[in-house]
Batch of 3 targets.
Target 1
Amino acid sequence: MSDRKKITLPTLYEKYERGEPITMLTCYDYPTGYLQEEAGVEMILVGDSLGMTVLGYESTLPVTMDDMIRHSQAVRRGAPTAWLIGDMPYMSYQPSVETAIRSAGRFMAEASCDAVKLEGGREMADRVTGIVAAGIPCMGHLGLTPQSASSLGGFKVQGRDAARAARIVEDAKILEQAGAHSILLEMVPDRVCQWITERANIPIISLGSGPRANGQLLIFHDMFGLYPRFKPKMAKVYGNAGEVILNGLKQYVEEVQNRSFPQREHWFTIKDEEYNDLVERLEERDHLDH
Ligand code: KIV
């Protein structure tokens, strides 16, 4: 286990003040949480993208609070010192401020998260304020907000025309004033992201929004070739784990079929005297039964 000190809000803000880039990744399970902790990832998002990457849905919309809590708990067990953010799933905060506070509270109480994230700008500002007033740090999320993909016209870059870009810039200010501790900008043009970053007083994290933000986020499954349906342009592939696993699986199927697996080191034995005793006992029992 890593000997890193717990990442806290002051730790993150100190890094931000020093102008050092903040690292952030999505994560959905214990072993990956363990690896991300070992690698020194600072902010971990248990994203509702798990609906697509792990549960195989077509979108994030079917993901429930119970799904999110179960996966957040697993990640926390693997990554005890990371700044762990629970992503509020569809309809866990949209209905009302009270619903939002209750859902955010579950992430903190049941999964030991450090913060939550929700999607949306000015229309969600009162949810952010309510959550923060309840003592729960909250990250905003602007640009491509997957839970609203239907009204945004699909999974595409947001803020490419001046009017829409201006709205994102205004929304970022509104979320900051509402109390957000950081904002994720997903698939926003680089200069729009830079504009927001230079004027914000909280960390701005980029997902496909360019290098000028205070930190970067990638989706873990995109980084390692683990999502078979598509690879977004913004994702850098750091290794093809999907290919490594597939080759291993094919080899396993072949080895079981041609009996080259298992080999001597893959099974357990019983001492001769114990086995002979066993045979004797069983034969005696058989004899008594007949
Ligand atoms: O659910 C998620 O992983 C997210 C990212 C797309 C930022 O919200």
Note: The pocket of 3-methyl-2-oxobutanoic acid is lined by residues 26, 45, 47-49, 87, 146, 184, 186, 207, 217, 219 (CB under 6 Å).
Target 2
Amino acid sequence: MPNTILVGAQWGDEGKGKIIDFLTEEADIVVRSQGGNNAGHTVIIGGKKFTLHLIPSGILRARKACVIGNGVVVDPIDLIRELTGLRKQGVTIADNLIVSDCAHVVFPYHRILDECRERAKGDKKIGTTKRGIGPCYGDKVERTGLRMGDLVHPKTFSEKFQAKVEENNKILEAFGEKPIDFLEVKKAYLSAARKLAPFITNTVVYLHEAIKAGRNILFEGAQGTFLDLDHGTYPYVTSSNTTAGGACTGTGVPPHRIDRVIGVMKAYTTRVGEGPFPTENQEISDMLHAMGREFGSTTGRPRRCGWFDSVATRYSSMINGIDELAVTNLDGLDHVEKIKVCVAYKLGTKTLTVPPSDMRELKRCVPVLIELPGWKASTAQARSFRELPPKARNYLKKIASLTGPKLSIVSVGADREQTIRL
Ligand code: GDP
Ligand code: IMO
Ligand code: MG
């Protein structure tokens, strides 16, 4: 398999975890390059469900190496919780996982500040996952963060951490919050550090040696294009670069070593959290929620749902340089009589074919919708493109051609087996 970046082409939760698991069969190494445990990637294998937050979804396949890259932010306590949970489910995690010594560490004050800032924003809140992601990346950019490499040096860690706790306790106090107990948290983090020490290394060198040895890499994107800090619906975004470029900075693998970009998108659109969402539709939200679908895998919040938005996915294809598309959740539309697809936005009298970068304008955009006939049949059993109802094939061809790249994977159910390769 060529070195492949896999990105979410919409607002996250496109089914990246499922497609990563499918593609890992052909990969040697799976690497996360950004985000943290705000991600929730679901993989279902033979009916058994796994939810990954920090650990790459590739961990579910034996003999594949997984890397948490330098661009990721790691909550060590949560990483251990995830690791333990996966082991209980029968997953082997030993020398098949390594963690970058340059990845920044998420601390309790990041999580509490995330909550406080959201609360203070009132109805202007972002709707974050409250995992402390923004404040942790904030410290990284401010150049005051602590990294995984610091954790394994107790003396330097204690000094740097004490200064951070003192500073953050003043801020917490201003928000009316209880201060952090330095000794208690230090103890918990140093204990986590002892457990994680065997995993922590220079992952850049590891990846470069692997490339030299001819091993191939699958870059597992977290979140989605419109949650990208630069290209998303700012400020309703996450705090990392979720688009293809982030895979290089977040791992230290240079751009000329990347051979292919795959964009994952749902056959419709979802978004969790606040912010503009032009094709949002109450009817389709109600329908999907009634089917027990589209509840967040990290926070359990119901996702907002809407029609497929080709203005957004076309722009996403441009930013990421998407070569191939994986369309998931086709089966979610199995019983819809008439399916709508957004082909442009109306902003007053203007017709737009790219999303405006000004959020006030995006909020005012009205989708221009075309209608396609539904196939009104189950697609869940299809294992080849030919086995799909003709109207489902037409729908897929239409959304792929509106987006641009070629269609290479279709998913018709959450299970690993329910995947079609074109
Ligand atoms: P990710 O964050 O992009 O990995 O996506 P999530 O796992 O958060 O959300 C995707 C949801 O859709 C999960 O519940 C998956 O199990 C599920 N899923 C993925 N592909 C399909 C599909 O083709 N059909 C159905 N029914 N569910 C799917
Ligand atoms: P995966 O990898 C969907 C959203 C949050 C919020 C915004 C900022 O599973 O696709 P943050 O906690 O990152 O500061 O929240 O980003 N968000 C996600 N939405 N899927 C995700 O990850 C997300 N990670 C963050 O809901 O709107
Ligand atoms: Mg998710």
Note: DSSP finds 13 helices and 20 strands in the chain.
Target 3
Amino acid sequence: MTDALKLGFGSFSAPAKGVLVVFCDEAQKFGPATRKTLGSATDYVARAAKAERFTGKKDSVLDLIVPAGLKVPRLIVVGLGKTADLRPNDFLKFGGLAMGKLPASTSDATVFAEMPGGAMKSEQAADLALGVRLRAYAFDRYKTKRKEAETPPATRTITIAVGDIAVARKAYASRSAISEGVVLARDLVNEPANVLFPEEFARRAGALKKLQVAVEVLDTKALKNLGMNALLGVGQGSARESSVVVMRWNGGRAGEAPVAFIGKGVCFDTGGISIKPAASMEDMKGDMAGAACVVGLMHALAGRKARVNAVGVIGLVENMPDGKAQRPGDIVKSMSGQTIEIINTDAEGRLVLADVIWYTVQRFKPKFMVDLATLTGAIIVALGQEYAGMFSNNDQLAERLTAAGLETGELVWRMPLSPEYDKMIDSKFADMKNTGGSRWGGAITAAQFIKRFVDDKIPWAHLDIAGTGFDSRQTDINKSWGSGWGVRLLNRLVADHYEK
Ligand code: BES
Ligand code: MN
Ligand code: ZN
């Protein structure tokens, strides 16, 4: 949790406190304010760089303890590489990189947001600050013991030195809202399923009310009345009640059709009667990462008062084996009226999405919709953990998502949809079956299934985030497991194209 972090902006001339972080380019050139602060230490830094073979290459770091000629106990030099090539996402990473280099015990640090040519632009400094914030996140609420060296101070104060404090603060305001959305999404993904079951998830989504988001919870009874039997079938083996949460943020023109985001919220996926093997099954507490992203995104949009009408709809269930659980061979009637033969109870996410997507289309007639789901292992086989799989019925939406991905570093790669794949989910007994039968093209047949519940007049994109929603590797801006993936991507999509 990041509450112990005090992140603020200051001036270059105020004396640096604690650890000092500065930037240089690939010619090891510093900006004027940095040179002034380094003063007589400049020579020492140059010699240390040479000894350490530090060249200022992008993302490289020179870490100097008790640097001669400086009052600070530690100096960290981060390489920017070629400054002309830098993109917004790079500044985010630099912030994360700098934060990651601070020793756990650091209580004060100053980061000089300066490049050789002078102070970073406020947007760049604000991106740097966002990177610091996201990297500082830790999910440690269940740790009761800690090694001495890992014990953080009660508060950490990090000051970003900038050219214009007021403008940088203003640029950071929207990013602060985004960071809260990402942190919320990460918390939800990281929580274990004995704590975060569907009702508790819905309760946490209810906290968005304090940001003027309208939050409705449809309980099992309401879902039965609506005919959401595909979703309810998944949850029927669980002791926990299934629900659907609808979140609405109206920051746009009154009466204008909203943009819609839909999330798979399987709070735990055992596979059901088609039970999963034991290895790594604990990861399936993160099978609600799509829903977590939608809640985090709604939090971010409302927090920065985005000038858009947006709805978030999430389907919350737990997939368990039980005497009451759904069986392979069962046939369910979805809210759309289409019938589904259950071949594998582990292909449950698409059943949840089928009803939630249909409901969203009928009720909101959105301008476009994006669904996010940790849907298939097959997408991890195809793309690994670098890109999410994207399936879309609309080239413009797909292109906008691709561009937003490049801007934010939350990358998407478009995958195909076609009638040939669609045929693979035809069923002998019902309108369709819930798997393609073979493992081949498993992410595609899953997307084809969802497509049968989409109105093709509405631009739609499906993001299979099985590889990106949680991650055991560490990245520059995340050292926890839940990534909060998609919050920044979709916030960017909205900000670039859909705000009035
Ligand atoms: N939640 C899983 C997919 C998943 C796997 C997400 C690993 C993240 C990491 C999904 O419900 C599932 O079990 N999919 C099956 C579908 C198959 C039975 C057609 C899969 O991918 O094996
Ligand atoms: Mn499953
Ligand atoms: Zn699942």
Note: The first helix runs from residue 32 to 38.
